Amino acid sequence: MSGKNILFLVLLLFIPVSVAAHFLEWGDLIVFITAGLAILPLAASMGTATEEIAVVLGPTLGGLLNATFGNATELIIAIVALKAGLVDVVKASITGSIIGNLLLVMGLAMLLGGLRHKEQTFQPIVARMNSAAMNLAVIAILLPTAMNFTSPGIGEKTLQNLSLAVAVVLILVYALTLLFSMKTHSYLYDVGVAETEALEVANHKPNMWFWSGVLLVCTLLVAIESELLVDSLEVATSKLGLTALFTGVILVPIIGNAAEHATAVTVAMKDKMDLSLSVAVGSSMQIALFVAPVLVIVGKIFGQPMDLDFSPFELVAVAVSVLIANTISSDGKSNWLEGTLLLAAYMLLGFAFYFYPVVDGIS
Amino acid sequence: MSGKNILFLVLLLFIPVSVAAHFLEWGDLIVFITAGLAILPLAASMGTATEEIAVVLGPTLGGLLNATFGNATELIIAIVALKAGLVDVVKASITGSIIGNLLLVMGLAMLLGGLRHKEQTFQPIVARMNSAAMNLAVIAILLPTAMNFTSPGIGEKTLQNLSLAVAVVLILVYALTLLFSMKTHSYLYDVGVAETEALEVANHKPNMWFWSGVLLVCTLLVAIESELLVDSLEVATSKLGLTALFTGVILVPIIGNAAEHATAVTVAMKDKMDLSLSVAVGSSMQIALFVAPVLVIVGKIFGQPMDLDFSPFELVAVAVSVLIANTISSDGKSNWLEGTLLLAAYMLLGFAFYFYPVVDGIS
Amino acid sequence: MSGKNILFLVLLLFIPVSVAAHFLEWGDLIVFITAGLAILPLAASMGTATEEIAVVLGPTLGGLLNATFGNATELIIAIVALKAGLVDVVKASITGSIIGNLLLVMGLAMLLGGLRHKEQTFQPIVARMNSAAMNLAVIAILLPTAMNFTSPGIGEKTLQNLSLAVAVVLILVYALTLLFSMKTHSYLYDVGVAETEALEVANHKPNMWFWSGVLLVCTLLVAIESELLVDSLEVATSKLGLTALFTGVILVPIIGNAAEHATAVTVAMKDKMDLSLSVAVGSSMQIALFVAPVLVIVGKIFGQPMDLDFSPFELVAVAVSVLIANTISSDGKSNWLEGTLLLAAYMLLGFAFYFYPVVDGIS
């Protein structure tokens, strides 16, 4: 039994432990930590299940499934937090997921891949398309934020309406990027696909019913653990001396994206950079163009209106992350120093969010 | 007779109609709409006349003529609006022309061209030079705006002086870009020129006097229609429930740039992307490096001082437009999704300007 | 005797003149000008001495020496100014050194090189690595500034702590870029190194002791002249009608960087663009990733705490300089118009700093 499997089983134990911690009232801090750890193996299982079902469904439907359920863990945590009224934490975790995927995941992948391989290459055209799509996402969250910043008297109603309109455009754009990558220009993405298939050679005929069951059970368990996590979040983080902003931007996304981290780094070390970047950048794009707008619409339905008016500092963080990630990825080559620069940018942002003073709403 | 010609003749009818609407007092809304429609065929005719005269004058003088009269319609509308004291509308229409050319025109060209041709290519060096020049233009309008934003007590006199100094630098830079593209490095632009010539094979010896007359008559008529348009603008747009900002940024530039739109899209569908981009980006550059600084100087002469202190939100809009257009064009390749991303960015900006609250001066 | 040598000897005369001006009380303006001129030949001699010693020490140790003492003049001026409590002037001169190297030095090199050679080329990978590193530097100074701007109540203590943390990360990143360029990926930089060697063919065996003595004497003299410069700075510049901001951003860096200017332009005219850019961009990187963080730490030790909270306008200036320099250098090609665009950007920034009103602290 590999170390990876043992770790998986140990982490699974945190599911009952976190539930016990909740009902036996062991304190919010312990609930928060154990629920956070319990989500890790569930997220990994959901990822595996989604990929297995995708193999059965074939490239088109399977691709769609991957594209919509790829960030299911984050979506569930966010919906639970939104229902609990923690709108600022949800926004912060969107910010943090984008930053984390572009800087931490891509940075680690390029660094660890680069330590083994002098220079790694990937499709520059795909990198540029992703850059352009991420620029659009930055524009989308920039506009409501800039509007509120430059014209402070603006009503919440207007921000809501603008955010809804923006959300609809983003979801349409996301659908079109899928059409592009899976249909009209799939040849550009062939390298990555070929690698994915190579990885899946071992398991030819996954059992659809088994994996659907796994997906269902894990989704339910993630939802439960998310409730525990969200309920204990405020007390636990204040005990740790952390602000809700830091928790939302740094801690929650690390829990939600752990599976992507592992995958992106593993394949990068095998010199499969196209696949590695498609996981890291693809996950960022999915958050920005799909998860965030879906949350705006879901919030509207729940009566917990969420707009896309981020705090100016979060906006700055997302904008600089996209900028440096684009600069580094646009030439289709990477090395260990480029990975280090991304990680250094992540560290700087981490420091900044750690020191950021408590302000309006986000406490 | 082609549909295009019929449309042209029908639109010409709006010249007498708009004049009648004005003198018979049919209401500002009708004057505004008919004058706007009347400008379309006049702008197209001015474009044709300028190109025909340019053929007679030869590449150098003709190129200069194109480079200075290419945006004559917008310049005339802007000067009329400036004389009428609508400084904010003029600034908004500069913003809107830059955005419209980079996002709407280039986006439509890449989308419609890309639907016919899987991948279209153009000179990446030219694209990069244009990117750098547009970055300079962003810096030029950023500095007065940032100065006013970060140091609110600054006097209007200082902004005026800074704007004049900036305007002189920009006009010099514009002259040098012409020297570069027409003299010292014209070989980089040869592809586009060859295409232009191919288009003009049919009409070998244009009649200089005829086209000069056309240019003169059209210029006069555009000036008259611009007066009607500007006089009726405020009442008409408020009847339509639109702010002056939205009108200036979205509506006026669409009227002023209709000819460029048609040309850029038509040649893109014929896979002549170098020509298409030189129309779209070239027009943006001309607005930013020539029209805007000329307006600053003209405003000084008219005693209607116009500075380059744009509203922060307009600045954000121009900056993000340049950013995404640069990202998409810098590799010298385009496809339908890239066109879609530009159009989506334009839609997002359109929404934002639609929802932007009425503020100081611009009402 | 060449004109260059005569100029050198004439400038050396300003050392005794400036000292005399100080003790005989000829007025602050004369002290300021003569001390500024006296620093020029000393900076040049320090540069020569550092390179000669580097030849003796061999590529690794010599590279390290160059990398740490390359901006010794600026570092000495800054430390003297910091001790005198002129924190804002120090910050302004950091801003100005980055801007000056990226726009003025690189612009002049590309313009004058481009007037002789139609198109000049350099390693695009190195240009991109440098771009990414400069982006990181922008992020580093952006975060404290943005934090203070978006959350005005923030304590100076927090800004200090954040700045110290940022400084440590930057110095680490700088060390890693040296490891990358001198050890793991030195082949990428071979072109530049080969050129450097070719330049040094004439002087095979420099006398280590002689040049160490030169370095020591010049360092002492630079420190003395810096004292004179800093002491007379405030009175002298106000007599000239200049603000401390303009002096710090434009004047001081021109004095401190004169040697780099001369080298970068000279080698560009010999079509050695790799070397030229490594001087210009390398000097910017050194200021941003080494000198600025060292000053933060030195300030802490001196009890003259310097944070990285720049004025928003300085931040804007650095950000746009990095942006346009990256756009122009990222393709590994240059021509005279690109040089002109950089110089135009420098002129625009110069105007802006000239007109910038006197505000808080920086008077």
Automatic annotation (TrEMBL), chains A, B, C:
Coiled coil: none
Bilayer topology term: Multi-pass membrane protein
Subcellular localization, as worded in the UniProt entry: Endomembrane system
Chief subcellular location: membrane
Keyword Transmembrane helix: yes
Any one GO cellular component localisation term in the record: membrane
InterPro entries the record matches: CaH_exchang, CAX-like, NaCa_Exmemb, NCX_ion-bd_dom_sf
Lineage top rank: taxon: Bacteria
Any one Pfam family match given in the protein's UniProt record, by short name: Na_Ca_ex
GO biological process, one term: intracellular calcium ion homeostasis
Protein task: Ca(+)/H(+) antiporter that extrudes calcium in exchange for external protons.
Family according to the record: Belongs to the Ca(2+):cation antiporter (CaCA) (TC 2.A.19) family.
Name of the featured protein: Ca(2+)/H(+) antiporter
Organism: Fischerella thermalis JSC-11
